[in-house]
TrEMBL record:
Domain ACT: 202-279
Alphabetized PANTHER family for the sequence: PREPHENATE DEHYDRATASE P PROTEIN, PREPHENATE DEHYDRATASE-RELATED
Domain Prephenate dehydratase: start-end pairs: 12-187
Signal peptide: none
Protein name according to UniProt: prephenate dehydratase
GO biological process: L-phenylalanine biosynthetic process
Pathway(s) it belongs to: Amino-acid biosynthesis; L-phenylalanine biosynthesis; phenylpyruvate from prephenate: step 1/1
Gene Ontology CC terms, in alphabetical order: cytoplasm
Gene3D superfamilies, per database record: 3.30.70.260, Periplasmic binding protein-like II
């Protein structure tokens, strides 16, 4: 790595995808002054931060319609990175096409399979042929390169601007609540101050292979009044006997109730590691109002 790359990392944030991706948009919203580093895979984005090519990474973990983002929960525990923040991005899907094209003239639309699924009603209503691609921004780039006025793409407003396309129909997603949660990752461990408002603690753990171990590990959160807002399980090590869990709880380890709950979970686990303690995004409060 060159000295220039090291210097650039002080003002650089990595994401998976191409310029104009929704992850790119999340970077712009949270860190408007930072340079962005598009990466082909999540592994590449993690590695960019780990090696110092980038200072931060913006990684999607959940979508309100699609569920969890594949691979991320497997990569986080072994990444050597820390979660220092979260961001909720409202996904607004735009139908874009080459300059001068019209909605009436379109015959096919290109995008990621998830984005196409989230616009199923619109696509059917207008009799468009859905063409699956690896990502939304890449679809926009392809449409711009081909310049065919009968073919469009579904993606972000940022992608339309990035590739010089016209938006021929705005906000065409079927569900208004379509939202993606992102995590901000760093090499440095930066924890939220317990006195500065609500916090989220993220950790992963593997319970002991004994009867009722998960029930007992989770019991401490209930008895100490700690709210668990996320619990995911996945297999590790190629065996059906070793299940790992990924969890988000409301609260800070400095709080006595959280400390006691984590201590009890640790007792019934063969391994437990905190991945990050970070400020709760205001979106969480808005959802409850």
């Amino acid at each position: 790595m060159t000295n220039d790359a090291i210097l650039d990392s002080n003002d650089c944030i990595a994401f998976q995808g191409e310029l104009g991706a929704f992850s790119n948009q999340a970077c712009e919203e949270v860190f408007p002054g930072m340079q962005v580093l598009p990466c082909a895979t999540f592994e590449d984005a993690f590695q960019a931060v780990k090696q110092g090519t980038a200072k931060r990474a913006m990684i999607p973990v959940d979508n309100s319609l699609y569920g969890r983002v594949a691979d991320v929960h497997h990569l986080l525990p072994e990444s050597g990175l820390y979660i220092i923040g979260e961001h909720f991005l409202r996904i607004r899907l735009q139908l874009m096409a080459p300059k001068g094209a019209t909605l009436e003239g379109l015959k096919a639309v290109h995008s990621h399979t998830v984005a196409l699924g989230q616009c199923r009603k619109f696509i059917k209503q207008h009799g468009l042929k859905a063409m699956i691609h690896a990502d939304t921004a890449g679809s926009a780039a392809l449409i711009a390169e081909q310049g065919d006025p009968t073919e469009g793409a579904i993606g972000s407003e940022l992608a339309a601007a990035e590739y010089g396309l016209d938006i021929v129909a705005r906000n065409i997603e079927d569900a208004e609540h379509n939202t993606t949660r992102f995590l901000v990752l760093s090499r440095q461990k930066i924890e939220a101050d317990s006195l500065n408002g609500p916090a989220i603690t993220t950790f992963f753990f593997r319970v002991r292979n004994v009867p009722a171990a998960l029930y007992k590990a989770m019991g401490g959160f209930a008895t100490n009044g700690v709210n668990m807002v996320k619990l995911e399980s996945y297999m590790v090590g190629g065996t059906f006997n070793a299940t790992q869990f990924y969890a988000d709880i409301e609260g800070h380890p400095d709080e006595r109730s959280v400390a006691l709950a984590l201590e009890e979970a640790q007792f019934f686990s063969s391994h437990l590691k905190i991945l990050g303690v970070y400020p709760a995004h205001p979106f969480r409060r808005m959802e409850r109002e």
